[in-house]
């Protein structure tokens, strides 16, 4: 059932696993206290990379699209978490309006994700219907799924104060679209209903750098609790704000930041005796994961002829754009011959499951979130995110997955910090 | 995986299953609203009987002892529910003191139950230790489990205001002893810690008649929601208060109540065209389930020679005692040749699993909670308490188990009503 893990388990990660397992009651208590102060995102998924010497989140998705990769065994857990989430937000709810990502409705995998979400929230006791975020849709349409089932998507119906469908007035509107193209007017000024996640969680307003800044804060607190170096769970980062991709000097900031970050990583590697060539990842600060991501091992690569043209995808093909430079965390997990990275899925504060994203054509230092990726849900099946105290670190899949669940929750907590800091409606006490 | 069900599925139960499935969103919402007003017991298990024509709880245990019968698959669900429960009661908790039933510590099955409880609450992130409710225990002792593992039980340490163990000060004290012998002094006047369930949930103060009175209220509300006859889920009952078992006229009240109840059942059977001989069950009103339970089909049986002597066990061998007379609900579920009844396990408001109690030597009209009973945990394995909408009633195990989960939760809600009504510290507004 459990995929073979060939993680290079040398030194630090075993210590980390050991420390995390020993500290389980302290860790769970710490999370409970954090959740008293901070509101977890309604749902989320976190991509994690296990480098053997460090373990870090590389992407936190607040509009997760991989619930179809969970095994049916994980369904009861997801349903129970959904019940707990709904109960806190809108206990009197009858109806949930789910708003999918319009441009993904042609993708089979995405339809399976939608179906799974509909299933989870229906089994949690809600009437769930899908609303199309596209003015051009004026009638209900039926989408065919690979398993022979169907989903109906209906046109949204906006009144002055509420959003719904024909004969369907929801208490909660659950967005599964990342709003990277901006916030549609139809979603604005909804003050009577719960819109989840909030609009400022969309990629038109979110910044990766802000998330990782919050994560750094969380990682420091957590590392203090466990008496360890936060670097073991934190990917260092730096950012450049707006970069002009058309001019050679436009990349000056990127170049100097790449150089500085590589130096910092080299120092850390030396401290831990890690025999790896450091690399950094340059990516758009304001876009969903994977898009036009670039691996750099030396700042000089940025001056190579044609470099800027080849990598304009980072800014989405635009002449300018904000970029983040992040410490590259190689992934040493493999399934057979393919490079693998774990993805942890959460609803409310609970880890409800996870899966491996694998990609046979990608290297250990590249993004696996790219066409050609496949998914293996077996890894996190059943009770594997529950640790087995007493087993040696590094040898027990359940213990490994507990550790992934902790890192996933740290990233989720960082997203909670981030959303508080960026909330346009937050009350400020000074 | 799923045991063969040979329930006599004629008429009403299929309609009930259908009605319950169709009404799932309304039912879940109704429970959510009830839990806003009422506090669920910390944990509970409910014995259910499926007569084909009606489905009813027959016993609600607030100190459940069957967690060892859950499959490992159900563990994540139990852990998540335990996390939710602890979070509400004592989020800053580090330590949980579990107080087992002293006279069951020689039973292997009970030790396995304790081990499972320790596992659940440890995995929820608490330091769990066991405290012995017996003054004679002055040192820690080690108990050997059938699987080769061990549990340590320590003497309780009481200070003026708190209860704990040596070097162990818990936030919450979880009782797994039903206190049928009365409330020990060591548990009295603990106002700084959470004592769960509260003392008045113990059998020295609890009355079955009070529970079923609360259940009747719950069943009526629920039946109104679904537009159905509450009798389909409610076992009728009546009670006699103190009965003098030594005198023939001591049973006068029992005799007339048995007669009246049998008449009421006969009327209901006629209404639904049920071709069954009615029976009632006479049992102690203030004791744990099963003990000295007696099946009666005719009030005349009470006058048979030697009857009172044979059934003095009802009052625990005492000359007098309180009794409850309850409509007998036959169980038509079978595993192979043995009579079976489902048991639903809950933590906080969540169904975390269930199992079948089976007994090869007992009839469909007898208590299965007796020596010789065995347990089949397979039935409720995995996601089987999640319904599959669209499947025909009566043919789908998951749908059947969803229905059991609903009835289990109704009985748990009744226990919440009951504990509120009997709370000696309740504030009364008049």
TrEMBL record, chains A, B:
Entry's EC annotation: 6.3.2.2
One of the record's GO molecular function terms: glutamate-cysteine ligase activity
Keyword Ligase: yes
InterPro entries the record matches: GshA, GshA_N
One Pfam match: GshA
Top-rank EC class of the record's enzyme: ligase
UniProt keywords, alphabetically: Ligase
Protein name (Swiss-Prot/TrEMBL): Glutamate--cysteine ligase
Organism: Ideonella lacteola
Name of encoding gene: gshA
